[in-house]
Amino acid sequence: MGEPAGIGGEIALKAWLRRGEAIPVFAAVDDPERLAALAAQLGLAVPVREIAAAKDAAEIFGAALPVLAQKLPVPAVPGRPSAATAATVIGAIERAARLALSGEAAAIVTNPIQKKPLYDAGFAHPGHTEFLGALAELEAPPAMMLAAEELRVVPVTIHRPLAEVPKILTTAEILRIGKITAVALRRDFGVTRPRLAVAGLNPHAGESGSMGDEDETIVAPAVDALRDAGIDATGPLPADTMFHAAARARYDAALCMYHDQALIPIKTLAFDRAVNVTLGLPFIRTSPDHGTALDIAGTGVASPESLIAALKMAAAMAACRRAANGLA
Fold first, then answer.
1. Domain boundaries 150-269, corresponding CATH code
2. Cβ neighbourhood burial of 95 (10 Å; 0-12, 13-18, 19+)
3. pLDDT-derived band of residue 36, with 50, 70 and 90 as boundaries?
4. How far from 8 is each of 3, 128, 256, 303, CA to CA, in Å?
5. Which is it for the CA torsion 259, 166, 184, 130, positive or negative?
6. Rounded to whole angstroms, how far apart are CA atoms 108 and 101?
7. I need a surface site. Which of 136, 195, 250, 306 has the fewest CB within 10 A?
């Protein structure tokens, strides 16, 4: 569902219309009346059909968009989020996670949420990633990867002010995120021997301590520890030379020290095709790499490209995981 006042419903409808383009079978966890009304409003020829169980989606997907009903208590108004719908949004995420944990769904693909109305309703998690980790009862938080054909990036610190990053960055956390990334590359992306490029925190990776000592005292020991764990890791590397084509050919994922160091290059290279992937969960979760776009909600101009990429990547990851588990 995502934020019902945003573009999630519209891009789900548009993704179904593109079902002939090797898009995997999916069911929406949403309010079927909302989706049907939205399709009519936007002039999208999408029949909406409620289903009782996820397994029913395959049978009707060719003829209609299957929907597992998650009814809203009040109508959603495009561009105007409301705390009144927060419980339904949270319930949709929980339901999808339960389906994935039980094996009824091969993966979940989440549409963007608007955090303020959730916080106003008492939601206690920073976002999807942390909430899914709690639902899965993980002992440590999962990691976030942004992935496209051209590049995969994993930020070690995520939604933290830049001034805080040097204070919270630790060797142990870089090592933990690196290990999660290597496991995911093998299990979910079919990379036999993952290669990690680890970015330095400071310009020129600190230039031997002349631009800060964090790269020598925090990042470099983490790279050594990754190597000791049998992972092909290089770094700390100057971030300004890590993302051109020749450099990208030398690694399978880049570990970045903070949010923008990771997201600027991938959004420059693949703005409409990048996919948000949660690593470290017992199930597969992907998401479009964009927000709720409240300013264009209900206008019919939202692009489904990132959602389509997320659906296709989720299916490919599920196939890799089945093969890794000997179930292909």
1. 3.40.718.10
2. middle
3. very high
4. 7, 15, 29, 10
5. negative
6. 10
7. 250
Q: Class of 1-142+282-328 per CATH? A: alpha beta
Tokens 């599920």 sit at which residue?
318
Residue for token digits 């069911």?
27
Q: In whole angstroms, give the CA distance from residue 34 to residue 41.
A: 10
Q: 178 and 164 in contact (C-beta within 8 Å)?
A: no
**CA–CA distances in Å: residue 149 to residues 180, 251, 273, 312:** 20, 13, 9, 12
Residue ranges per domain, the chain? Answer: 1-142+282-328, 150-269
> Using one digit for the tens of pLDDT, what is the confidence trace for 67-94?
999 999 999 999 999 999 999 999 999 9
| Distance, CA of 131 to CA of 260 (rounded, Å) | 22
Look up tokens 């929907």; give the residue: 67
Q: What is the DSSP string of 223-249?
A: HHHHHHTT-EEEEEE-GGGSSSHHHHT
